[in-house]
Structure formats: structure tokens, C-alpha cells
Write a sequence for this structure.
């Protein structure tokens, strides 16, 4: 095993595992990339490292600066890790719509949090816009760098190595890649590279059915954290997506619970949505195909939510 002189070298090179028990007969082989193996338990470590490194390289970010970002949690946690490793202060604009575990993890890494109240604990367009506006105001302070994830193209290249890993781990035999859309950076970054390897690879993106704006629907509240911002993300590139699948929040939660009970894979709600969509595509492609999707983050980030809390209660005598 390799020894690293910084935690940042532990980002990437995550495992690929085949699903067995939740996949129906006649379906393609479904593989999931275990992105919780990244240091903070999320794929967002990849994009956070990219955003910070590129800003340092061109002088937008200088030693002693404070970094500001709006986030539902995973990006903030990943930025907090990078800031610890590189010595920056971090100010996060977030909300009570997101799990306590995520907020606590950001604080544990030393981030300063500003909490924006939500509407009944749900993600809405108005909440996202208020978080962005608040971050924009804080970014006007001296010696501050705003990563502005929804508009930051540096985040896209952070996922290029993820595509390389998938291509190599599937022995260059991949038929479809499936991923939820939040900022759209991960789906766009992976799709860009996979299409260079083989432009016949099908790129499928996933969104909440309650807020299916990519499919032409109306925005609405939902509880799939980290995705479905209620409007078209600025980084969205429709020409890279071959199909869009909308998944209900409750179905995504139930699949997350099934993955834990039936596959031993403990993931969040967006990962459940990914698997539902991957199975749908797998049934279309048939048993001789290979489909890859992501376990975006760890279920440990959602223990206080109804994804798991009310289903895994202990019985005391």
C-alpha cells in the first residue's frame, strides 16, 4: 500500500462493485463506483480539489484568503478538507434542509457556517437562490475567494480522472453511465471523457421527479439532497446527455435502504436514485451490457434523516 504525505493524495481511485441482489433478471450488469472511499466520504472531494488548485495556479486565490461557498453539505465538507490541508479559512452558507451530519462534519473541519432557514426542511429554488445571494454578499469582503460551484468550470475537470477510472475498471467495455444532476459538473466531466473513448456510450442523467426541470417540468420541493436545484444549472450541457430519467424522492430513499439491506452498500438518497435509473437503462440494454453509476456519498451522512432513522431503531429490553 502506498504512503502519502498529504490526505489530498487519497482522493480518487475508488472501487467499482457489481450489484447482485437489487438487479432484476434480464438486466445488464450494473456496477457502482464507491465514491465514499474519498477522504470525506463523497465524490465532491474531486471537484473541491480542482476548484482550489486551479484558483491557486492563476492567482485568484492567495495565501491568507478566506474561501466562501453555498452548499447543501457535501461540497462544503470537501472544501473544508482542502482548506485544512492547505491552510485556508472557510465560510459556508448552508441550510437546515440538509442533514445534521453534513453540517456537523463541516464544522468539525473548522468551517464557519451561516444557516439559511428552509421551507419545511425541503430543497427549493428559493432556498438555493437565497443561499447564493448570501454567499455573494460575503464574497465582497476583502481577501475572499468565492468558489461559486454552480458557475465554476474548474469543477468539471475534477471529474475527468473519474471517467478514466471507470473506463479502465470496466476493461474498456462500457455501454452506459448514469449520474444525478446537481451542479451538473460530475455528469458533464465524466461524459466529456467517456465520449472521447467511445462516443456510443450512453450518458443518462437523473433528477427528482418532484422538480424535473431538465425534462421540461416545473420546479418543486424534494428531499434528494445535493441534486435538483429547481432550475437549469449553468454548467448543464444538454448535448452530452442521451436520456434524462426522473425519480421520486420516496423511491430513491427506499432504494438506498435496499442497497444497505441487500447489497451491504450504505449510501445516500441520490445514490438510490442513481441505481433506480441504472436498472431502468440496464433493462433497456439487456444482459450483455455494462452500466456504471455512482455511490455518490456515504449513508453515514444521513443517519439523522428519515432515509434511515425510523427504519433502523433498536429494541431495548
Amino acid at each position: 500500500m502506498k504512503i502519502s504525505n498529504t490526505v489530498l493524495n487519497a482522493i480518487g481511485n475508488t472501487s467499482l462493485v457489481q450489484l447482485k441482489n437489487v438487479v432484476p433478471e434480464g438486466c445488464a450488469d450494473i456496477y457502482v463506483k464507491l465514491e465514499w472511499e474519498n477522504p470525506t466520504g463523497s465524490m465532491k472531494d474531486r471537484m473541491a480539489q480542482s476548484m482550489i488548485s486551479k484558483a491557486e495556479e492563476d492567482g485568484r486565490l492567495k495565501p491568507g484568503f478566506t474561501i466562501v461557498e453555498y452548499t447543501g453539505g457535501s461540497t462544503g465538507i470537501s472544501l473544508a478538507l482542502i482548506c485544512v490541508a492547505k491552510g485556508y479559512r472557510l465560510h459556508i452558507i448552508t441550510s437546515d434542509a440538509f442533514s445534521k451530519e453534513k453540517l456537523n462534519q463541516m464544522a468539525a473541519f473548522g468551517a464557519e457556517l451561516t444557516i439559511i432557514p428552509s421551507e419545511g426542511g425541503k430543497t427549493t429554488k428559493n432556498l438555493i437562490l437565497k443561499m447564493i445571494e448570501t454567499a455573494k454578499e460575503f464574497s465582497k469582503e476583502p481577501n475572499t475567494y468565492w468558489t461559486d460551484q454552480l458557475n465554476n468550470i474548474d469543477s468539471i475537470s475534477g471529474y475527468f480522472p473519474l471517467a478514466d477510472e471507470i473506463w479502465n475498471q470496466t476493461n474498456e467495455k462500457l455501454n452506459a453511465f448514469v449520474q444525478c444532476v446537481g451542479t451538473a459538473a460530475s455528469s458533464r466531466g465524466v461524459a466529456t471523457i467517456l465520449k472521447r473513448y467511445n462516443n456510443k456510450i450512453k450518458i443518462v442523467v437523473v433528477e427528482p421527479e418532484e422538480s424535473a426541470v431538465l425534462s421540461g417540468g416545473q420546479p418543486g420541493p424534494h428531499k434528494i439532497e445535493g441534486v435538483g436545484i429547481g432550475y437549469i444549472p449553468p454548467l448543464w450541457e444538454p448535448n452530452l446527455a442521451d436520456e434524462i430519467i426522473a425519480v421520486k424522492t420516496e423511491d430513491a430513499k427506499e432504494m438506498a435502504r435496499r442497497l444497505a439491506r441487500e447489497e451491504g452498500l450504505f449510501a445516500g438518497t441520490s445514490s438510490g436514485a442513481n441505481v433506480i435509473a441504472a436498472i431502468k437503462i440496464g433493462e433497456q440494454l439487456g444482459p450483455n451490457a455494462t452500466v456504471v453509476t455512482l455511490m455518490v456519498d456515504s449513508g453515514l451522512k444521513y443517519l439523522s434523516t428519515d432515509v434511515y432513522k425510523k427504519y433502523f431503531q433498536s429494541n431495548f429490553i
Summary: The two ends are 45 Å apart (CA to CA). DSSP finds nine helices and ten strands in the chain.
